[in-house]
Amino acid sequence: MPMASPRAAASLLLCILLVSAPAASTATSLFDDGKAAAKGKAAVDMEWRPATATWYGDAEGDGSTGGACGYGSLVDVVPMKARVGSVSPVLFKDGEGCGACYKVKCLDHGICSRRAVTVIVTDECPGGGLCGGGNTHFDLSGAAYSRMAIAGAGAHLRDRGQLKVVYRRTACKYGGKNIAFHVNEGSTPFWLSLLIEFEDGEGDIGSMQLKQANSAQWLDMKHVWGATWCLYGGPTAGPFSVRLTTLSAPKTLTARDVIPRNWAPRGTYTSRLNFETTL
Predict the structure, then answer these.
(1) CATH number at residue 87
(2) pLDDT range class, residue 56, cuts 50, 70, 90
(3) Which residues of 59-76 are buried (b: 16+ CB within 10 A; e: fewer)?
């Protein structure tokens, strides 16, 4: 058997540790036919709030070359292309903030337009400096940062380096794409690791369950990092149904038999549904 990559091996170890840990008293377990939702979660706050912003990567580039959320090469292509954002820990939320969408705009109308740029959380800005101390900070792609400028002033805005901005949550809209599940490298019938892609609406995931073939039981998956969730134990057998519940204002969606019986590591399986494109 070929050896798994270091990242896959580390993910497996983390998944085992998470499964072995005692369940938190506030953890949500199984849902009633997909209609019940986790309780105690705050609704999405739509108010404009203050933050700071910088940019990274090429001047008109896509910013991240993958990022802590695990989206990999997806950040280089539409619909994520040039819309990526690295955020401070208060928005990254240990990875549960991955996939959330925000509108960000600069208030200096001498150089900034009145329009906001929409960015998708794909990466974490490490704690420290502007990103530390509980600060709210966006480190945007050069392209996204430049779009806040008035016509022809993108280069001048980038020269500022650091801006005071305001931001608010907004619905994610992936232009007709449905939610997809990427089976991560190293997955086996005893350890299944899934990356969630293209969630419309709130964009973030707060809990995830999996049901295997010929079973009525929904199994809780564990959040590993970024947009990646795992299930350790088994063996399990496909096809798999997957149930997702959003984090901010819980909404539940069930993709039935979305991952086929003959699934393979590195395969991506697209559902036929998505969340509403409103918050």
Answers:
(1) 2.40.40.10
(2) confident
(3) ebbbbbeebbbbbeebbb
